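tool=predict chain=A
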Amino acid sequence: MSACPIQEILQPLQSLRLIDPHTHINPHQAASRTLADILGYHYYTELAHSAGLAKEQIEEPGLDPREKVRRLVPWLQHVENTAQYSWLLEMSQQLFGFADDRITESNWESLYDASLRCMSAPDWEQQVLQKSGLDQVYLTNDFDDPLQGFDTSYYVPCLRTDDLVFHLTKPTVQQRLQAATGIAVTDATSLRDAVGRLFQHFTANNARACAISLPPSFSPASVSSVVASQLVAKSFSGAELTAEEQSRLSQFVFWMLAEFCDQHELPFDLMIGVNRRVYEQGVYQGQDLFDSRVSLVQYRELFNAFPGVVFPVSVLAETSNQELVSFAWIFPNVITCGHWWYSNIPVYIERDTRARLQAVPAGKQVGYYSDMYKLEFALPKFAMYRRILAKVLAEDFVGGRGWSVERAVELGSRLLRGNVESIFGGIQR
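tool=predict ok
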């Protein structure tokens, strides 16, 4: 097929303004301050470390930003083949005016200085948002985040619940929960009151979702209030729970979160399948991996029990994507959501996108989210996805089925923007 239909589809998709439904942006410092904030992103530090750079060289305490970049740049030559490098290059060219096609030891300082001049502009954050075409950015907020000091109609809160589900036995988490809610937890009822107060706080501040990342071993299940009260009382008294008791407590809290999502009509984002600290000597955020033992069958009880809750689901493995496609095929409340982490490279995105478009109702697909920690990453990441989406639409729908370009663009627009608004609630200002 000629490139013409691809370009005809791509051009209107490129002009489409976006809502990014999942990021790790700090709304108080959303944009980067130096190039070290960008190269310090875990993709680059873990790739450099994998190629041979010592962890201590990357994470030396008090390391000057320019020196950190100087240490990382020589290792970029080893990762020029990667999608992550292409993000860095496209970002540098589009945002900082970088004119070369490689970042090397001979030109990195000029790039550093140019990026510093850009980032020092008082309106740099707004420049990045405008160039990236972002109308709204969804956050990942700790349960005790006060949600103050930023515009929640633009930087939209999302209640992240990993600590509540998997770390509630830690005294520090228990203390944070009491400080955030003013409730001294002693049993299942008081825990429910405390979590309910968190939901009230978040929904009052424009939260659009609850979210959690889940290990392959986790299986949601309902736990009786009697058993739960015993576990909560034991944990909050300072006693140590057995592994089985911790598992049951996690199930209770998770199920309760689904109940509150149902009550408050919030989608419950599930990011399924991550094993933490697989490579314990890895760099910061470069220690976690997945395996293929996870199955969405583990979530059948949850999906059946809460038909009114929308579950946007992200998975890490390609085999899991086939299962996700099948679950979204028959469960009205299961949504395919983005291309998460290790699946966020073109070869997997293209195959996963094709599978979803061929099997899942069009309105049940959130095409992409950036998962970014700094705003500058939205531009190259969404650009990558848009190019892949245009290619799939051109080949499979215009070429394969005889659709018009306009019809293909309409479908692509739903994945990029329309479904985010219909699933999460759109822009309300």
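The mean pLDDT is 96. Residues 20 and 369 are 5 Å apart (CA to CA).
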